[in-house]
Amino acid sequence: MFVETIAWKQGKVKIVDQNALPGRLVFLAMRNTKDLCGAIRTMKIRGAPALGAAAAFAAYLGIKNSKAKDYKELEKELKRLIKLVGSSRPTARNLFWGLEKIEAALQRNRDCSVPGIKQALLKEALSLLEQDKFVSRKIGSFGQALINNGDRVLTVCNAGGLATIDYGTALGVMYAAKEKGKKIKVFVCETRPMLQGARLTTWELKRHGIDVTLICDNMAATLMRQGKIDKVVVGADRIAANGDTANKIGTYSVAVLSKYHKVPFYVAAPSSTFDLRISSGKEIPIEERPKEEVVSLFFEKPIAPEGIRVFNPAFDVTPQKLITAIITEKGILKPPFSKNIAKRIKD
Fold it and tell me: Is there a common fold for 6-137 and 147-344?
């Protein structure tokens, strides 16, 4: 039932082409670093946890056939690759966490032969796949306790199996609630401009038999005013030490609406999404994407006049004071976030 977003098959990285959904479920084979970095940039693979594993495999693919004679030569190659992969997308903390895991594995195995080091790096990348499956289900297990039978839940973008390895963070909470026998209804913001909510989240929830309704992004306020939303659960791309959270553009707007309408606003994310080196959301780098995403419908049909100026940030930052709790694999973190994040999350 759960689709693996990324897997290692016959010496290649197999990913789901998320740009082909919901029309077709297509798998692509990534044979080298260039291919996988291209898939990351064009969002064929996306979602912070999935990008952590993708980045690790992208680095490994680059040294897989390396002619390096010793550790020093291999280290030089890997550092270049890490810089290259790190430039693919700047906001998701997990991408850099995945690269740090690969670099740490290199350091731990510096006394091994070059083939031995390569094998250790592949083992590390593979371990991230299994780790994510475990972590996502732990997040779901903790988070479902916040969901009551009959709840109507709103979510933004896609924080499901397609954004992780196979289960999800925000959607993992909903899957776990269903597994506990709870009946819920989910409202999904379409998530302009790339429509991850419309294309991906509704596709996932429908496959899993969860009652789902798609709405335009500007309809959330009306639903809340009518008393039709009980909880909001979203994912995250980077969380600062004080709890400020970067997530898909439009999340901040929903958080403001939730605060006004007294609707609990939950963030679901693994500990690998936390960046304890930055004190607040002001330090989170926000990716700006091509104007074509906004002025044309999936780069095919123009929906704005030619030559119009475009502002297209891919993410926004929700201040921690608007967040009710953060659901992690280590438990549910509540305010004061600075204190509780420092206590429960290790960098």
Answer: no
Question: Measured between alpha carbons, how far is residue 150 from residues 147, 153, 156, 184, 202 in Å?
Answer: 9, 9, 20, 5, 19
Distance CA 338, CA 329 (A): 18
What does CATH list as the number for 6-137? 1.20.120.420
Residue 199 is given by DSSP the state I
Query: Which active-site residues does the annotation give?
Result: 237
CATH architecture of 147-344: 3-Layer(aba) Sandwich (3.40)
| pLDDT number for residue 346 | 75
Residues with Cβ within 8 Å of 300's Cβ and at least 6 positions away in sequence, in order, are none
- Average pLDDT score over the chain: 97
Contact 254/218 with Cβ under 8 angstroms? no
Which pair of tokens denotes residue 105?
A: 């594995």
| Parallel, antiparallel or unpaired: strands 231-234 and 152-155 | parallel
Task: Report pTM.
Answer: 0.97
Domain ranges in the chain are 6-137, 147-344
* Count, residues in the chain: 347
Q: Which two tokens stand for residue 301?
A: 């049909």
Q: Quick check: 66 and 74 in contact, CB under 8 A?
A: yes
